Amino acid sequence: MKVKSGYALSSESELMMLRVIGKLGRRTPLDVVPTFIGAHALPKEYRGNPDGYFDILVNEMLPAVAS
Question: Structure pTM?
């Protein structure tokens, strides 16, 4: 089962969601695959600055998720 993040739209919240998804996979017999989808929506505060959010995705979120 693929479980997606990407609804919190902040680094801290995305990482928390991915940790919870990982715990779900360890605590149930389900085969759970956490999937980061941080770029599916643009947060309100970046509506006039999509490049700013892209920078956060590339330079902050993706490295944090990868580690």
Answer: 0.76
Q: What integer pLDDT is reported at residue 7 of this predicted model? A: 80
Buried b (16+ CB within 10 A) or exposed e, 9-45: bebeebbebbeebeeeeeeeeeebebebebeeeeeee
Tokens of 39: 């770029």
pLDDT higher than threshold 90 for residue 1: no
pLDDT, residue 3, reads 86
CA distances from 50 to 27, 31, 42, 43, 45 (A): 37, 35, 7, 9, 9
Give residue 15's domain range: 2-66
Give alpha helix (H) positions in 1-67: 11-27, 50-56, 62-66
Task: Quote the pLDDT of residue 46.
Answer: 92
